[in-house]
Amino acid sequence: MSDLQVKVEQVKALLASAVAEFGAVTFANSLGAEDMVLTDLIAQFQPEIAMFSLDTGRLPQETYDLMQAVRERYAVPLTVYFPESASVETLVAKNGVNGFYDSVEKRKACCFVRKVEPLKRALTGKRAWITGMRRDQAVTRGTLEVSSYDADQGLHKLNPLLDWTNAEVWEYIKQHDVPYNKLHDRFYPSIGCAPCTRNVTPGEDIRSGRWWWESADGKECGLHAGKISKLS
Questions:
Q1: Is 193 annotated as a binding residue?
Q2: Axis-axis angle for helices 61-73, 33-45 (nearest 10)
Q3: FRET partner for 134 with CA separation of 20 to 30 A, picked from 6, 30, 78, 206?
Q4: Is 196 annotated as a binding residue?
């Protein structure tokens, strides 16, 4: 059995254990390459795990294309959550439609409205949630654990691909013909909102294209990193 096959079996066991232990488990599907590996495994082996995505209202067209591809290929429904329209209107009136470029505080306020608040709704009633985060994605993720209690969200958090390499993610995708965001073919290794994402050059950190105007040691949106300001 190859190293990748061993890791796949470990993920399958972790998913089965999560369902057995927590029952109400949901997968936060950001539609990145890692998340598409998990989408494929969950759909095959643990379809009772719910899946959801957050539509911030500013995603690239390629991400919407992938959402549709997931819907057409997999039997597990992908529930999409949107930000509250009144909160978006208030944010834009206060900071401008692209105010997130002005300061870290304003960018985090935008992330709160478009991501963090919808996530709270998506996790309501769940006992555990799953992400596709990996340790080598960014310096902010080096201390993550495969399984831990998420005090911010008040439920258990699982990162089944935490110790996978980027090469292993893509090996799985190619072996199993898993659909993926076509921006990856244009050197976008990490994809978020369109105005906050750019492609990268060889040798750059794979998360360097996200909020590229900010310092690398604090580039998280608030979904996975402590508290975040509501509106600046």
A1: yes
A2: 10
A3: 78
A4: yes
Label each residue of 91-118 as H, E or C.
HHHHHCCCHHHCCHHHHHHHHHHHHHHH
- What is the domain partition of the chain in residue ranges? 3-84+119-215
In a 3-state reduction of DSSP, which class is residue 132?
coil
Mean pLDDT over each residue of the chain, to the nearest integer: 91
CATH number of 3-84+119-215, picked from 1.10.760.10, 3.30.70.100, 3.40.50.620, 3.40.250.10: 3.40.50.620
Percent of the chain clearing pLDDT 90 (strictly above): 81
Catalytic residues: 221
Confirm or deny that 110 is annotated as ligand binding: yes
